[in-house]
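User: Here's a chain of 267 residues. Predict its fold as C-alpha coordinates.
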Amino acid sequence: VDSFFAYGLDVGVVSALFFANRLIQLPLSVFGMAVAVAILPTAAKSGAEKNDAAIRDTILYGLRASTFLILPAMVGLMVLSQPLVTLLFQRFEFDTAVATMCANALLLYAIGLPAFAWVKVGVNGFYAIKRPGIPVIIASISMVLNIILNFLLVGPLGYKGLALSTSIAFTVNFLLLYILLSRRFGLLMDKDAADSLIKTLLAALIMGAGVWGIASYTADLAPGLPGQLLHIGLSVGGGAMLYALAAHVLGIPEWQRLLLGLRRRGK
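Assistant: Prediction complete.
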Protein backbone atom coordinates (compact mmCIF):
# COMPACT_ATOMS: atom_id res chain seq x y z
CA VAL A 1 0.00 0.00 0.00
CA ASP A 2 2.78 2.42 0.93
CA SER A 3 4.64 1.64 -2.30
CA PHE A 4 1.52 2.33 -4.37
CA PHE A 5 1.22 5.81 -2.89
CA ALA A 6 4.98 6.36 -3.05
CA TYR A 7 5.13 6.01 -6.86
CA GLY A 8 3.61 9.47 -7.21
CA LEU A 9 6.17 11.16 -4.96
CA ASP A 10 9.80 12.20 -5.39
CA VAL A 11 12.41 10.00 -7.05
CA GLY A 12 13.91 7.57 -4.55
CA VAL A 13 10.94 7.43 -2.18
CA VAL A 14 10.00 3.87 -3.21
CA SER A 15 13.54 2.64 -2.53
CA ALA A 16 13.74 4.58 0.73
CA LEU A 17 10.54 3.03 2.07
CA PHE A 18 11.46 -0.45 0.86
CA PHE A 19 14.89 -0.54 2.50
CA ALA A 20 13.63 1.10 5.70
CA ASN A 21 11.05 -1.66 5.91
CA ARG A 22 13.77 -4.29 5.37
CA LEU A 23 15.59 -2.99 8.45
CA ILE A 24 12.37 -3.20 10.48
CA GLN A 25 11.82 -6.79 9.35
CA LEU A 26 15.14 -7.93 10.84
CA PRO A 27 14.34 -7.46 14.57
CA LEU A 28 10.72 -8.36 13.89
CA SER A 29 11.77 -11.71 12.41
CA VAL A 30 14.53 -12.45 14.91
CA PHE A 31 12.61 -11.44 18.05
CA GLY A 32 8.89 -10.94 17.39
CA MET A 33 8.35 -13.95 15.14
CA ALA A 34 10.66 -16.15 17.22
CA VAL A 35 8.64 -15.53 20.39
CA ALA A 36 5.35 -16.01 18.53
CA VAL A 37 6.48 -19.33 17.07
CA ALA A 38 7.88 -20.49 20.42
CA ILE A 39 4.63 -19.97 22.36
CA LEU A 40 2.24 -21.33 19.70
CA PRO A 41 2.51 -25.05 20.67
CA THR A 42 1.84 -24.25 24.35
CA ALA A 43 -1.11 -22.02 23.46
CA ALA A 44 -2.50 -24.64 21.07
CA LYS A 45 -2.20 -27.36 23.73
CA SER A 46 -4.04 -25.17 26.24
CA GLY A 47 -6.68 -24.42 23.62
CA ALA A 48 -7.24 -28.13 22.99
CA GLU A 49 -7.70 -28.54 26.76
CA LYS A 50 -10.07 -25.50 26.78
CA ASN A 51 -7.88 -23.94 29.46
CA ASP A 52 -8.43 -20.21 28.95
CA ALA A 53 -6.34 -19.27 31.99
CA ALA A 54 -3.33 -21.10 30.57
CA ILE A 55 -3.80 -19.43 27.18
CA ARG A 56 -3.88 -16.04 28.90
CA ASP A 57 -0.68 -16.80 30.82
CA THR A 58 1.06 -17.96 27.63
CA ILE A 59 0.06 -14.89 25.61
CA LEU A 60 1.00 -12.56 28.48
CA TYR A 61 4.38 -14.29 28.74
CA GLY A 62 4.87 -13.88 24.98
CA LEU A 63 4.02 -10.18 25.15
CA ARG A 64 6.49 -9.66 28.01
CA ALA A 65 9.27 -11.60 26.28
CA SER A 66 8.80 -9.83 22.94
CA THR A 67 8.71 -6.45 24.70
CA PHE A 68 12.01 -7.15 26.43
CA LEU A 69 13.64 -8.00 23.10
CA ILE A 70 11.94 -5.52 20.77
CA LEU A 71 12.12 -2.25 22.77
CA PRO A 72 15.93 -1.98 22.65
CA ALA A 73 15.79 -2.81 18.93
CA MET A 74 13.28 0.01 18.44
CA VAL A 75 15.38 2.53 20.36
CA GLY A 76 18.58 1.43 18.65
CA LEU A 77 17.08 1.79 15.17
CA MET A 78 15.77 5.23 16.03
CA VAL A 79 19.07 6.50 17.43
CA LEU A 80 21.24 4.95 14.69
CA SER A 81 18.86 5.32 11.75
CA GLN A 82 21.08 7.63 9.69
CA PRO A 83 24.47 5.88 10.17
CA LEU A 84 22.90 2.45 9.67
CA VAL A 85 21.30 3.44 6.38
CA THR A 86 24.50 5.16 5.25
CA LEU A 87 26.61 2.09 6.01
CA LEU A 88 24.28 -0.50 4.49
CA PHE A 89 22.75 1.21 1.47
CA GLN A 90 24.36 4.51 0.47
CA ARG A 91 26.22 3.72 -2.74
CA PHE A 92 25.72 4.10 -6.50
CA GLU A 93 22.31 5.72 -7.15
CA PHE A 94 21.33 5.44 -3.46
CA ASP A 95 22.75 8.89 -2.71
CA THR A 96 22.67 11.12 0.37
CA ALA A 97 19.18 12.44 -0.37
CA VAL A 98 17.69 8.94 -0.63
CA ALA A 99 19.63 7.83 2.46
CA THR A 100 18.14 10.71 4.43
CA MET A 101 14.64 9.79 3.29
CA CYS A 102 15.28 6.15 4.20
CA ALA A 103 16.54 7.11 7.66
CA ASN A 104 13.49 9.31 8.28
CA ALA A 105 11.16 6.52 7.17
CA LEU A 106 13.03 4.05 9.38
CA LEU A 107 12.53 6.34 12.36
CA LEU A 108 8.77 6.42 11.80
CA TYR A 109 8.49 2.71 11.05
CA ALA A 110 10.42 1.99 14.27
CA ILE A 111 7.71 3.69 16.31
CA GLY A 112 5.36 0.87 15.33
CA LEU A 113 7.89 -1.93 15.83
CA PRO A 114 6.53 -3.03 19.25
CA ALA A 115 3.01 -3.19 17.81
CA PHE A 116 4.30 -5.24 14.84
CA ALA A 117 5.78 -7.77 17.28
CA TRP A 118 2.82 -7.79 19.69
CA VAL A 119 0.41 -8.52 16.84
CA LYS A 120 2.45 -11.62 15.94
CA VAL A 121 2.16 -12.82 19.55
CA GLY A 122 -1.47 -11.83 20.07
CA VAL A 123 -2.91 -13.70 17.10
CA ASN A 124 -1.81 -16.96 18.73
CA GLY A 125 -4.59 -16.55 21.27
CA PHE A 126 -7.19 -16.90 18.53
CA TYR A 127 -5.26 -19.60 16.70
CA ALA A 128 -5.29 -21.59 19.96
CA ILE A 129 -9.11 -21.63 20.07
CA LYS A 130 -9.38 -22.19 16.31
CA ARG A 131 -10.76 -18.72 15.55
CA PRO A 132 -8.24 -17.47 12.96
CA GLY A 133 -10.92 -15.40 11.23
CA ILE A 134 -10.88 -12.79 14.02
CA PRO A 135 -7.27 -11.69 13.42
CA VAL A 136 -7.95 -11.65 9.67
CA ILE A 137 -10.90 -9.29 10.14
CA ILE A 138 -8.86 -7.03 12.43
CA ALA A 139 -5.95 -7.04 9.96
CA SER A 140 -8.36 -6.10 7.16
CA ILE A 141 -9.67 -3.18 9.22
CA SER A 142 -6.09 -2.13 9.86
CA MET A 143 -5.28 -2.26 6.14
CA VAL A 144 -8.28 -0.07 5.29
CA LEU A 145 -7.21 2.37 8.02
CA ASN A 146 -3.70 2.40 6.52
CA ILE A 147 -5.11 3.38 3.14
CA ILE A 148 -7.26 6.14 4.65
CA LEU A 149 -4.34 7.50 6.66
CA ASN A 150 -2.16 7.45 3.54
CA PHE A 151 -4.69 9.67 1.77
CA LEU A 152 -4.82 12.02 4.77
CA LEU A 153 -1.10 12.20 5.59
CA VAL A 154 0.69 11.98 2.25
CA GLY A 155 -0.31 15.57 1.40
CA PRO A 156 1.05 17.36 4.48
CA LEU A 157 3.88 14.92 5.31
CA GLY A 158 4.82 13.32 1.99
CA TYR A 159 6.67 10.00 2.26
CA LYS A 160 6.91 10.43 6.04
CA GLY A 161 3.12 10.24 6.18
CA LEU A 162 3.22 6.82 4.50
CA ALA A 163 5.59 5.38 7.10
CA LEU A 164 3.69 7.01 9.97
CA SER A 165 0.34 5.71 8.71
CA THR A 166 1.69 2.15 8.69
CA SER A 167 2.88 2.43 12.29
CA ILE A 168 -0.48 3.90 13.38
CA ALA A 169 -2.43 1.21 11.54
CA PHE A 170 -0.43 -1.59 13.15
CA THR A 171 -0.84 0.01 16.57
CA VAL A 172 -4.61 0.05 16.07
CA ASN A 173 -4.39 -3.57 14.89
CA PHE A 174 -2.73 -4.55 18.16
CA LEU A 175 -5.11 -2.50 20.32
CA LEU A 176 -8.13 -4.20 18.76
CA LEU A 177 -6.51 -7.60 19.24
CA TYR A 178 -5.64 -6.72 22.83
CA ILE A 179 -9.22 -5.65 23.64
CA LEU A 180 -10.75 -8.81 22.16
CA LEU A 181 -8.12 -11.07 23.75
CA SER A 182 -8.73 -9.47 27.15
CA ARG A 183 -12.48 -9.90 26.77
CA ARG A 184 -12.04 -13.56 25.83
CA PHE A 185 -9.29 -14.65 28.25
CA GLY A 186 -9.12 -11.95 30.90
CA LEU A 187 -7.06 -8.77 31.10
CA LEU A 188 -3.60 -9.32 29.60
CA MET A 189 -1.91 -7.27 32.30
CA ASP A 190 -1.07 -7.62 35.97
CA LYS A 191 1.22 -5.95 38.49
CA ASP A 192 4.25 -8.06 37.55
CA ALA A 193 3.76 -7.38 33.85
CA ALA A 194 3.32 -3.65 34.44
CA ASP A 195 6.47 -3.50 36.58
CA SER A 196 8.40 -5.43 33.92
CA LEU A 197 7.15 -3.10 31.18
CA ILE A 198 8.21 0.02 33.10
CA LYS A 199 11.64 -1.40 33.91
CA THR A 200 12.18 -2.60 30.34
CA LEU A 201 11.27 0.83 28.97
CA LEU A 202 13.64 2.48 31.45
CA ALA A 203 16.46 0.10 30.49
CA ALA A 204 15.85 0.78 26.80
CA LEU A 205 15.94 4.55 27.38
CA ILE A 206 19.19 4.23 29.34
CA MET A 207 20.61 2.19 26.48
CA GLY A 208 19.39 4.77 23.96
CA ALA A 209 21.10 7.62 25.80
CA GLY A 210 24.30 5.58 25.97
CA VAL A 211 24.16 4.68 22.27
CA TRP A 212 23.62 8.33 21.36
CA GLY A 213 26.67 9.31 23.42
CA ILE A 214 28.86 6.55 21.95
CA ALA A 215 27.68 7.33 18.41
CA SER A 216 28.42 11.03 18.87
CA TYR A 217 31.92 10.30 20.14
CA THR A 218 32.81 7.69 17.49
CA ALA A 219 31.28 9.40 14.45
CA ASP A 220 34.61 10.65 13.08
CA LEU A 221 37.14 8.15 14.43
CA ALA A 222 38.26 7.06 10.97
CA PRO A 223 37.36 7.88 7.35
CA GLY A 224 35.48 5.70 4.89
CA LEU A 225 34.06 2.24 5.38
CA PRO A 226 36.39 1.24 8.28
CA GLY A 227 35.25 4.30 10.19
CA GLN A 228 31.59 3.51 9.55
CA LEU A 229 32.02 -0.09 10.69
CA LEU A 230 33.84 1.05 13.82
CA HIS A 231 31.17 3.67 14.49
CA ILE A 232 28.27 1.21 14.21
CA GLY A 233 30.11 -1.67 15.89
CA LEU A 234 31.03 0.33 18.99
CA SER A 235 27.58 1.90 19.20
CA VAL A 236 25.70 -1.39 18.90
CA GLY A 237 28.11 -3.32 21.13
CA GLY A 238 28.13 -0.63 23.77
CA GLY A 239 24.35 -0.37 23.64
CA ALA A 240 23.94 -4.12 24.11
CA MET A 241 26.19 -4.08 27.18
CA LEU A 242 24.39 -1.07 28.62
CA TYR A 243 21.00 -2.73 28.14
CA ALA A 244 22.20 -5.95 29.77
CA LEU A 245 23.66 -4.01 32.69
CA ALA A 246 20.50 -1.94 33.15
CA ALA A 247 18.31 -5.06 32.95
CA HIS A 248 20.48 -6.77 35.58
CA VAL A 249 20.48 -3.79 37.96
CA LEU A 250 16.73 -3.24 37.58
CA GLY A 251 16.04 -6.94 38.07
CA ILE A 252 13.93 -7.43 34.96
CA PRO A 253 12.48 -10.99 35.16
CA GLU A 254 12.87 -11.59 31.41
CA TRP A 255 16.60 -10.93 31.72
CA GLN A 256 16.84 -13.47 34.53
CA ARG A 257 14.96 -16.03 32.41
CA LEU A 258 17.29 -15.36 29.50
CA LEU A 259 20.35 -15.95 31.67
CA LEU A 260 18.84 -19.12 33.09
CA GLY A 261 18.12 -20.42 29.60
CA LEU A 262 21.67 -19.67 28.47
CA ARG A 263 23.09 -21.47 31.51
CA ARG A 264 20.96 -24.54 30.82
CA ARG A 265 21.98 -24.55 27.16
CA GLY A 266 25.63 -24.18 28.18
CA LYS A 267 25.37 -27.21 30.48
